[in-house]
Design brief:
The complex is a heterodimer of chains A (367) and B (511). With 367 residues, chain A is an all-alpha fold. Helix content of chain A is 71%, strand content 3%. In chain A, helix 2 packs across helix 3, helix 3 packs across helix 11 and helix 5 runs antiparallel to helix 10. Chain A is globular and about 75 Å long. With 511 residues, chain B is of the alpha/beta class. Chain B has three domains: 231 residues, P-loop containing nucleotide triphosphate hydrolases (Rossmann fold), CATH 3.40.50.300; 185 residues, P-loop containing nucleotide triphosphate hydrolases (Rossmann fold); 76 residues, no CATH class. The chains are: A mainly alpha (367), B alpha/beta (511). At the A-B interface, strand 1, helix 8 and helix 9 of A face helix 10 and helix 11 of B.
Chain lengths: 367, 511
């Protein structure tokens, strides 16, 4: 039998690395970005015939071209980061909260409702407090429902939180229908004239307050996860529920508390989006950020500091893609292909940081 | 002179910077039993996995019947008539023995129970197995499952058999039966390799023995011309005395009294049935039994992790004199009662420690709630970590290394160190030396003895009967969730304990 079967050593074998020195791992990442840019250049030339250097500089201008673009980039970064920070404690606990999208939306809806019904009848400061409280409550409730079912009956949180997103979207549609009698189902700017419930501009910058609030949340989340007792409990529950029980942690309580926090921060994000950024609500107010946030959180290894960088990369690429699409009159899809390639390389290179590939040794050298 | 059935030359295998096998040479002839001896982590299983096609060597050659062979998958190994019986059985529970035996065979024939049964019966008769081919796996004892695994590879025509720690889960009586079968297979011309770290088994069954130490090939001896001391030295690399200094229990008092406890699983299967015993301070109570007989459930019931359906667990507090019932209390409530209970669970990284956390954070697991305020206090745990690393000679790059990166022995030292540092009055340890090298094992035995001498009630769940008899004061035997006997360790024999281990009247236990 063995005469017939020709066995040969495999051409490629994968083995785990022991941990690269930091500068080597960054070299791998830099090489990945360089490679991605080269590949994108080829695609740009083949598909569009433009000069890739021009395309890349347009991409950079998308975020840094003008002061206005820079502020928009910062605002987008702040919102994405805020939602990423919101999902992080849940993910660190291995609770797959896919429902940030919906939690943000109901938070925004609560703010919009307060703005719509109260109008300019209350002083601004009091109004903002009420809006914030309403958003927090909405986000917490939306997150606690799946958490309660998980803790009580061990239901699947992934499906549950995902389904809650659709409920949230329909809820927003429903209220817009009530609020907009014309039937156009588009909510205009709320309190356009009175500006009641709008977050104030700081130093003439519309988005500065949002950015500062998110910066504070970032630092607080970093400290909470790393240095607080509750953060420690989250890590233990996430790593091993058996260990948590063994040392007497009430796992159900930690699940509920952590999801409450997660939902609360999503509520804050919704509040900032409606009161600070858009002053209106649509079914796409969250704009898919609830899902992108999951990627940011994972790429950032649940570390609030690294997440600033990862969310910057993603926002930068998104802004850049938009810019080249309009500048060169390209199809938006081409821009998306390019950013997709760059992201693929950035994420994919982590494989080469952790593993190495062994080629088959050339046939029996040295005898 | 005929060539060896299988011969390894200069085999080297690395995992990252870890060298699992370095330049290992080995050969077995037909009609010979070779023991592969080495401590845990010395690279025995890695080496055998290369023969059976699970890993591929980085360097070196394998010859089968004198011809060079390249084995890249288990199927290649099968083509070369190599059969491996793994330590953890790879059987489908709901299938019958016969179905498991032919599973995965690709001979284009229809499954015919009678035909398979007939061949199984032939094999059984030839080698002295005792098996019912129609019995389902989940109804079988561990030893029967092992028999199915062996028949499975024989059915496939294996000429070279590798058995990985085959006696780890067997009683002394079952071990004798297995050895008889192995000898008969040898006489039939099979080449057999037994992986083990038990010296007396090496001496009783094998013709030759090859020793590995930390991945290095140390040498091969003829069993008839060697003895336990020489083999130990080869295995460990230096002379060590393997004695446990057992002292007489002093000032004993009933610390933990377990009365008629009964536990059911969620599905209603009886896990523990009418269990009663007393653990005394200043004494080591050993628990012996076939793996999965309810040992884990018993310790977890005491620790507040297993629901108890009836009975009581009384803790006599030496400080207050109070007698508290621990039943239906959570681990936190037990601690709040002032019960100083330490527990070294069987699953170290899955329950006792958090693998991805460093030593300092693992030290805090039990004590992180201490102090007011919402923030963690890492100073004391850091001091404790330094102290344990120093006193128990934990080999680690530093206190900030994740514990899963440490070797099994060092992981265990961290866990046992933390549990002892809590100054317990009751210390429960489940298989605390599993996977540890000889030196670390004796460190742990000495720690347990020290605890006993300082007045702690120690409960020790073990698998090596020789150690249980040497270390403990009393040994309780558990079988099928029932206590089948409590014996005086100073007067009992392995055979007596072995008989008690199998003395279960149909009490099925959920594994």
């Amino acid at each position: 039998m063995s005469e017939k079967t020709k066995h040969s050593e495999p051409l490629l074998r994968i083995s785990k690395r022991d941990g690269l020195i930091w500068w080597k791992s960054w070299l791998v990442r830099a090489a990945a970005v360089a490679l991605a840019l080269v590949l994108c250049s080829v695609i740009i030339i083949l598909i569009t015939g433009y000069n890739p250097v021009q395309v890349y500089s347009a991409m950079i201008r998308g975020s840094f071209g003008t002061a206005r673009k820079f502020w928009i980039m910062l605002q987008n970064l702040a919102m994405l980061l805020c939602i990423s920070l919101a999902v992080t404690p849940a993910f660190k606990m291995r609770f797959w909260n896919i429902g940030a999208e919906g939690q943000v939306l109901v938070g925004g809806l609560a703010t919009a409702a307060v703005m719509f019904y109260v109008g300019d009848r209350l002083p601004t400061a009091l109004m903002i407090v009420i809006m914030l409280a309403a958003s927090l409550a909405a986000g917490i409730i939306w997150a606690m429902i799946p958490a309660f079912f998980k803790a009580k009956w061990n239901t699947n949180e992934t499906l549950f939180t995902l389904m809650m997103n659709y409920v949230a979207t329909q809820l927003v549609s429903f209220f817009i229908m009530i609020w907009v009698p014309s039937g156009s189902s588009v909510m205009g700017i709320i309190n356009q004239n009175s500006r009641a419930g709008w977050l104030p501009e700081l130093f003439g910058q519309k988005y500065l307050l949002n950015i500062i609030i998110v910066a504070v949340i970032t630092v607080a989340m970093f400290i909470y996860l790393k240095y607080s007792k509750q953060g420690y409990e989250i890590s233990v529950v996430g790593e091993s529920e058996n260990t948590a029980k063994y040392i007497g942690i009430n796992v159900k309580r930690v699940i509920l508390r952590t999801m409450g926090l997660s939902g609360a921060l999503c509520g804050v994000a919704g509040f900032l989006l409606v009161a600070g950024t858009n002053h209106t609500i649509t079914t796409t107010t969250a704009g898919g950020m609830g899902f992108t946030a999951i990627m940011v959180s994972w790429l950032g290894k649940f570390n609030a500091g690294i997440m600033v960088v990862t969310s910057f990369i993603i926002v930068f690429l998104q802004r850049g893609a938009g810019e080249i699409a309009t500048k060169f009159n390209l199809n938006q899809s081409v821009a998306d292909i390019l950013t997709g390639i760059i992201l693929f390389f950035i994420i994919g290179c982590e494989f080469f940081v952790n593993y190495k590939i062994n080629l088959r040794k050339s046939q029996k050298e040295g005898k | 002179m005929g060539s060896a059935a299988i011969e390894l030359k200069g085999i080297t295998k690395r995992f990252g910077s870890v060298v699992a096998n370095n330049n290992v040479n080995l050969s077995v002839s037909h009609g010979e039993i070779l023991s592969l001896l080495g401590e845990n982590g010395s690279g025995k299983t890695t080496l055998m996995n290369m023969i059976s096609g699970i890993y591929h060597p980085d360097e070196g050659q394998i010859f089968i019947n004198g011809r060079e062979a390249v084995i890249t998958s288990p199927r290649d190994a099968y083509d070369y008539k190599i059969g491996m019986i793994h330590q953890h059985f790879k059987l489908v529970d709901v299938f019958s023995a016969a179905e498991n035996i032919v599973l995965g065979l690709n001979d284009n024939r229809k499954f015919n129970v009678n035909e398979v049964s007939q061949r199984v019966a032939q094999i059984s008769e030839k080698y002295g197995f005792d098996i019912d081919p129609r019995k389902k796996i989940y109804q079988m004892s561990v030893s029967e499952k092992q028999t199915v695994e062996i028949i499975k590879v024989l059915y496939r025509g294996a000429d070279i058999l590798i058995l990985d720690e085959p006696t780890a889960v067997l009683t002394p009586q079952e071990t004798q039966k297995l050895f008889a079968v192995i000898r008969r297979m040898r006489d039939d011309g099979k080449a057999i390799i037994i992986i083990t770290h038990k010296l007396h088994e090496v001496l009783s069954v094998s013709d030759r023995v090859s020793v590995l130490r930390r991945g290095e090939y140390v040498g091969t001896l003829e069993t008839a011309k060697t003895n336990e001391t020489e083999l130990t030295e080869m295995m460990v690399g230096k002379k060590i005395s393997l004695n446990i200094a057992r002292s007489e229990p002093k000032n004993t008092a009933d610390r933990l009294v377990v009365n008629n406890i009964r536990c059911l699983s969620r599905e209603g299967v009886t896990l523990l049935d009418n269990v009663s015993f007393t653990a005394r301070s200043g004494e080591i109570l050993g628990i012996a039994g076939i793996a999965g007989s309810g040992q884990r459930e018993l310790l977890e019931a005491i620790a507040g992790l297993q629901h108890i359906d009836s009975g009581e667990i009384i803790y006599n507090n030496p400080k207050t004199g109070a007698a508290d019932n621990l039943r239906d209390k959570t681990p936190l409530q037990i601690r709040d009662l002032g019960v100083r209970l330490s527990f070294v669970p069987e699953d170290r990284l899955g329950m006792g420690l958090v693998g991805n956390m460093d030593i300092v954070d693992n030290m805090m697991l039990r004590s992180y709630r201490r102090g007011k305020g919402v923030f963690l206090e890492r100073r004391e745990p850091r001091e404790l970590a330094d102290r344990i690393i120093d006193q128990l000679k934990v080999v680690t790059p530093g206190t900030s290394t994740p514990v899963r990166r440490l070797s099994g022995g060092n992981v265990q030292k961290v866990l046992v160190g933390r549990e002892i540092a809590a100054a317990p009055t009751v210390l429960m340890a489940a298989y605390p030396v599993r996977g540890l090298d000889i030196n670390s094992s004796y460190t742990i035995y000495n720690l347990l003895t020290e605890q006993k001498e300082s007045g702690v009630a120690v409960i020790f769940v073990g698998e090596d009967l020789d150690v249980l008899i040497e270390l403990c004061d009393r040994i309780m035997v558990i079988g099928g969730g029932k206590i089948t006997g409590i014996v005086d360790a100073r007067r009992t024999t392995k055979e007596e304990i072995g008989l008690l281990m199998t003395k279960t009247d149909g009490g099925q236990i959920n594994e």
